[in-house]
Amino acid sequence: MAKADKTSAPPRYVAFLRAVNVGGRVIRMEDLRRAFEKLGFRDVETFIASGNVIFSSPSTEMEALERKIERALEKTFGYEVKTFVRTFAEVAQVAAHKPFPEARVQTAGAYCVGFLPARLAPAAAKRVLALKSAEDDFHINGREVYWLSTKRQGEAAFSNAVLEKTLDARSTFRGLSTIRKLAAKYRLG
To answer: Cβ–Cβ contacts within 10 Å for residue 115, how many?
Structure first.
């Protein structure tokens, strides 16, 4: 992967954090920003209190960034916080991708995207797509799983836990409206 030019601004990233401000675990966004700043990241901001952190880093090694953040957050907050880092360009692509017809999106109870640590192998992708039902539909694009449901997120049979069990891997979901607001705020894409 190409290294950043030292004369230009460092790359901007979004870290999507799993298990932040859910299940009784509450992290103040000020504390989260401070934890990122202690790691040497710059221009740190949070977006909505659900574990979305925007930051700059000269590093272009995505997996190394994720592991560094995970280790620091576990040490700081006392529990595993799986981290999924995406570039601004990748977030823009996630926001712009339209895997389902707009008419279905407009009537959906939930429309979310799940962030994964890596692209799915064909067998894993097949297992995810096999979860399709009368109420839930799925689409895989890169390291993301798009989920459209006729039911609201908390009422659906499908959940992040179901996906993690299906894949035997961690993931985190965000509503597509949140991703699109994030992309609009930072003028991504």
So the answer is: 25
Specify if 27 maps to a domain: yes
As a whole number, mean pLDDT of residues 30-48 equals 95
User: pTM for the complete prediction?
Assistant: 0.91
Which of these three, 26, 58, 87, is where a domain ends?
Answer: 87
Tell me: the pLDDT tens digits for 91-132?
A: 999 999 999 999 999 999 999 999 999 999 999 999 999 999
Is 106 exposed, middle or buried (CB count within 10 Å of its CB: 0-12, 13-18, 19+)? Answer: exposed
What span, in angstroms and rounded, lies between the C-alpha atoms of 6 and 163?
40
User: Beta strand pairing status for 110-115 and 172-175?
Assistant: antiparallel
CA 162 to chain centre: 17
Domain that holds residue 162: 92-185
Angstrom distance (rounded) from CA 187 to CA 69: 25
Count each helix (H run) and each strand (E run) in the chain, helices first: 7, 8
| pLDDT value for 23 | 67
Closest CA to 180 of 92, 85, 100, 78: 92
Instruction: State how many domains the chain has.
Output: 2
